[in-house]
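=== RUN LOG ===
request id: a7f3
mode: sequence -> structure
chains: 1
length: 47
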Amino acid sequence: MPGRRPIFATLVTDLYTFTRDSMFKIFLEPASHEDRRAKEEKKKKEE
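=== RESULT ===
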C-alpha cells in the first residue's frame, strides 16, 4: 500500500513524542497556583 509508514518508524516516532511530552511536563511545565501554594505551606510547616 503506497503511503503507509513502516511499523518501526511509527513506533520510534510515538516513543519520541511520548518521551518529549513527558519530559516537558515533568521539567518545564510551570506548576499550578494551587500546587505552588501547597508546597509553600508545607515548607512553612516544616520550619
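=== NOTES ===
Residues 7-28 form the longest helix (22 residues).
The helical segments are 7-28, 33-46.
=== END ===
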